[in-house]
Amino acid sequence: MASGQETNDSSNNNSSPKKVYKDPDDGRQRFLLELEFVQCLANPTYIHYLAQNRYFEDEAFIGYLKYLQYWQRPEYIKYIMYPHCLSFLELLQNASFRNAMAHPANKELTHRQQFYFWKNYRNNRLKHILPRPLPEPTAAPPSNALPTPLPPTATTMAASSAPVSAPPVPSPMQYGVPSGPPLAKNDPRNAIDRRKRKKDG
Q1: What's the rounded Cα separation, in Å, for the pair 72 and 90?
Q2: What is the dihedral of CA 191, 196, 198, 200, to 10 degrees?
Q3: pLDDT at res. 17
Q4: Residue 193: phi, psi to the nearest 5?
Q5: For residue 140, what pLDDT is reported?
Q6: CA 40, CA 46: separation in Å to the nearest integer?
Q7: Which of 6, 98, 107, 142 could form a disulfide with 48 if both were Cys (CB 3.0 to 4.6 A apart)?
Q8: Quick one: pLDDT at residue 119?
Q9: What is the DSSP string of the chain?
Q10: Please, are residues 40 and 85 in contact by the beta-carbon 8 Å criterion?
Q11: Phi-psi category of 54—alpha, beta or left, where left has phi over 0 and alpha has psi -120 to 50?
């Protein structure tokens, strides 16, 4: 009799399908949580916090960091807003980096390097992307283009010693500006009185 019940129990177990967990929102919540966590890794202060609280000593957490490397694939990378997080995720696979981030000096160094990268990223990128123009070749002036200077004579020396008064040539910046001393800021000719005057009467 016991053998009959065992066969009935075994047949019931084989016929009933195993229950598989299915997300009610088709994994959307998990996707958003993992995306948020991965992007938090772009902050060196957060990585320092994880190291200080000994998350990096937990083997399950190290496995989770290895699992999160799927975010580097093209179908997922398009959702990343802070690309530094992927660099830090790659660095966190190394145990020496995880141990180093527990020290505040290393956190500051990492943060400073990240700042300098942001500060100079555009200029560095343009330096490698934009082609540099070729230098213009400079042609040598022909030797006969310059007149040969005449040796000074007595008449030219006497003429050069006498002061010659040539009319001053106005510069282009002087047009439209009255000659003479500039008007003072508090000069009444310089300002327009926009206040309403009281009428007498």
Answers
A1: 9
A2: 80
A3: 64
A4: -85, 110
A5: 61
A6: 7
A7: 107
A8: 82
A9: -HHHHHHHHHHHHHHSPPP----TTTTHHHHHHHHHHHHHTT-HHHHHHHHHTTGGG-HHHHHHHHHGGGGGSHHHHTT-S-THHHHHHHHTTSHHHHHHTTSHHHHHHHHHHHHHHHHHHHHHHHHHHSPPPPPPPPPPPPTTSSPPPPPP-HHHHHHHHS---PPPPPPGGGTTS-SSSPPPTT-TTTS---SPPPPP-
A10: yes
A11: left
121 HSE (CA, 13 A, CB side): 8
The CA-to-CA distance between both ends of the chain, in Å, stands at: 128
Angle at 157 between CA 152 and CA 158, to 5 degrees: 150
User: Rounded to whole angstroms, how far apart are CA atoms 8 and 14?
Assistant: 10
pLDDT tens digits, residue range 11-42?
A: 555 555 677 767 777 788 889 999 999 999 99
CA distance 41 to 82: 9
Residues (pLDDT < 70) of the chain are 1-17, 21, 128, 130-134, 139-201
Of 31, 24, 41, nearest to 76 (Cα)? 31
Q: What is the pLDDT of residue 142?
A: 59
